[in-house]
Amino acid sequence: MGISKDDIPFIFERFYRGEKSRNRETGGSGIGLSIAKAIVLAHGGKMNVESEINKGSKFTVKILL
Predict the structure, then answer these.
(1) Residue range 26-41, pLDDT digits in tens
(2) Distances (CA, A) of 2 to 5, 16, 39, 42, 53
(3) Contacts by 55-60 with C-beta closer than 8 Å and gap 24+?
(4) Which pLDDT band, with edges at 50, 70 and 90, does 16 fall under?
């Protein structure tokens, strides 16, 4: 639970998977956050993350209406 501070600069890159996610048990391709950020940016918005190991992560999306 939570994202390492070392991984945060890379989590929105296509196919990036943090060290803990690089096993067959967790699954995923590492493309979801990249797609989400592309959609948000296409609408003129911003996407940010705050995370703490063993506590969790909070993703914030801001789009002006």
Answers:
(1) 667 789 999 999 999 9
(2) 9, 16, 23, 27, 4
(3) 55/1, 55/2, 56/1, 56/2, 57/2, 57/3
(4) confident
Q: Each residue of 25-52: b (16+ CB within 10 Å) or e? A: eeeeebeebbeebeebeeeeeebeeebe
**pLDDT by residue (tens digit) across 35-58?**
999 999 999 999 999 999 999 999
Closest by alpha carbon to 33, among 52, 49, 11, 50? Answer: 11
Domains and CATH numbers, the chain: 8-62 (3.30.565.10)
Residue 23, pLDDT score: 56
Contact 54, 2 (CB under 8 A): yes
